[in-house]
Design goal:
Blueprint: H1 6-40, H2 49-55, E1 66-70, E2 73-77, H3 80-87, H4 91-102, H5 107-114, H6 118-138
Antiparallel strand pairs: 1-2
Helix pairs in contact: 3-6, 4-6, 5-6
Amino acid sequence: MTNTSEYEKTIEHQFDSFCKTVLRNQARNIYAENKRWLNHFVSLETLTPADLAKLSGLDNYKVDSIFFSVLDYEISIEDIRIAQALESLSKRQQDVILLSFFLDMKDVDIADLLHLAKSTIHHHKENALEALRNYMEEHTYEE
């Protein structure tokens, strides 16, 4: 620095000052951005189990379900005992129960789909429910 002229020293000081100003402003921007992040984001560790449950999801895979076909509908049953109980019914009873309880159809709509009388649907449903009740009672304690 001893061989430089006054003009060059001035330029060096100006550049030095400019660099320090840029770094100081960048540091302020980083601190301000971090503060905004802290105000908007919450650590997962501070969430309650209920809040975590709202954020989480559960994947259902076809492997975990048993499928029944009724007309053009595919109905998946996740509970194996219920699926086994349904399999113990006749095809007509299965159709009536699946349409009624899993697709929330009324007896009149089921009768139209299956081309049967409403009273026949009601009869099949009552018999199927009784058979399901008996099946579940017999197989309640089996593992």
